[in-house]
């Protein structure tokens, strides 16, 4: 329905447009269609490569596969599990009863500074503070309460991926009294606001990690950054959800390809049809 409405709008506006302009717009639309098709094919290839990556949960099957592999390691695999701390978790600085294994807190001040040349106030970031905290954690098989199998996650701060959840964001604006106002005007600087943000990897989050899986002494499995150059990825979803996000992107590029291609072909066809009508009318007068 949306595509039908879009094409109707194109046809409705074509009568007041020259054929040359319509051909130009139609050609540009076809060019965009080709670009979107290239993105679609690239995403399809990426999805096929993701499907080739072996997928496991922290269970006996993974342990058997690692033991049977050369040097007791899987060069690159996806491991899906529930995040659990190896000890006491971190407590959120702003949210009560919210616990995490990775925590990133940012506090940044914004000040207004007087510019004597322009006679105006401008804003400047100052006193930025950032802290990254982490406790050792592992992945457990979701829903497996009796299983003792787990995969320790090594160096999560080196991983790529939006695995941190923003649980707090606040802007506190400065409120000056009369004395502060006079002093700030004399000094030429005054506080404007303080921006607070906290991001965490919450305990119990379903996490999918892509990396190297190795076996240490005592049947301890570890997920760590790959040594073969492949990316170390952490995503706060199960494997199917991660794959579905890529498939949704591929579908989006496919839709854009169809819309731009049909729109471009319609414009070019209409322009040629109008020129044919003009030719027929001239031929009739002669």
Number of domains: 2
Q: Compute the gyration radius: what is it?
A: 29 Å
Structural class: alpha+beta
**Tally of separate helices:** 5
Helix percentage: 25-40%
Order of helices and strands: HHEHEEEEEEEHEEEEH
Beta-strand content bin: 25-35%
Mean pLDDT: 85
Q: Tell how many strands the DSSP assignment holds.
A: 12
Largest sheet features: 5 strands, mixed, barrel
Shape call = flat
Distance between the termini: 44 Å
- As residue ranges, the low-confidence spans are 1-16
Strand order of the largest sheet: 2-6-7-11-10
Domain E3 Ubiquitin ligase MUL1-like: 112-266
Pfam families: GIDE
Protein name: RING-type E3 ubiquitin transferase
Transmembrane segments: 252-273
Précis, in short:
It catalyses: S-ubiquitinyl-[E2 ubiquitin-conjugating enzyme]-L-cysteine + [acceptor protein]-L-lysine = [E2 ubiquitin-conjugating enzyme]-L-cysteine + N(6)-ubiquitinyl-[acceptor protein]-L-lysine. The chain is of the alpha+beta class and 286 residues long.
Describe this structure in words.
- By secondary structure, the protein is α+β, with helices and mostly antiparallel strands.
- The protein folds into 2 domains: 29-58 and 239-267; 59-236, no CATH class.
- 40% of the residues lie in helices and 35% in strands.
- The chain has 5 helices and 12 strands.
- Helix 1 (2-14) runs parallel beside helix 5 (239-285).
- The longest helix is centred in the last third of the chain and has 47 residues, at 239-285.
- It starts with a helix and ends with a helix.
- InterPro entries: MDM2_MDM4_MUL1, MUL1-like.
- The chain crosses the membrane at residues 252-273.
- Keywords: Membrane, Metal-binding, Transferase, Transmembrane, Transmembrane helix, Ubl conjugation pathway, Zinc, Zinc-finger.
- Residues 112-266 form the E3 Ubiquitin ligase MUL1-like domain.
- It catalyses: S-ubiquitinyl-[E2 ubiquitin-conjugating enzyme]-L-cysteine + [acceptor protein]-L-lysine = [E2 ubiquitin-conjugating enzyme]-L-cysteine + N(6)-ubiquitinyl-[acceptor protein]-L-lysine.
């Amino acid at each position: 329905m949306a595509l039908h409405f879009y094409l109707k709008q194109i046809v409705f506006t074509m009568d007041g447009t020259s054929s040359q302009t319509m051909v130009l717009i139609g050609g540009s639309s076809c060019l965009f269609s080709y670009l979107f098709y290239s993105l679609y094919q690239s995403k399809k290839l990426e999805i096929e490569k993701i499907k080739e990556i072996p997928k496991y949960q922290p269970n006996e099957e993974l342990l058997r596969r690692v033991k049977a592999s050369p040097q007791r390691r899987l060069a690159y695999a996806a491991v899906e599990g529930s995040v659990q701390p190896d000890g006491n978790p971190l407590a959120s600085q702003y949210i009560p009863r919210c616990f995490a294994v990775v925590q990133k807190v940012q506090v940044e001040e914004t000040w207004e500074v007087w510019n004597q040349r322009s006679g105006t106030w401008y804003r400047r970031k100052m006193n930025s503070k950032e802290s990254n905290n982490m406790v050792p954690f592992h992945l457990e098989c979701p829903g497996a309460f009796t299983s003792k199998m787990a995969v320790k996650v090594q160096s999560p701060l080196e991983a790529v991926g939006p695995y941190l959840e923003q649980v707090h964001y606040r802007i506190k604006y400065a409120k000056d009294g009369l004395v502060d106002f006079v002093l700030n005007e004399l000094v030429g600087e005054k506080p404007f606001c303080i921006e607070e943000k906290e991001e965490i990897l919450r305990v119990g989050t379903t996490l999918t990690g892509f990396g190297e899986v190795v076996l240490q002494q005592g049947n301890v499995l570890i997920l760590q950054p790959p040594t073969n150059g492949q990316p170390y990825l952490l995503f706060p979803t199960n494997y199917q959800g991660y794959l579905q996000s890529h498939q949704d992107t591929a579908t989006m590029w496919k839709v854009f390809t169809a819309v731009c291609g049909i729109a471009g072909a319609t414009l070019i066809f209409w322009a040629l049809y109008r020129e044919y009508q003009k030719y027929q009318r001239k031929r009739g007068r002669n």
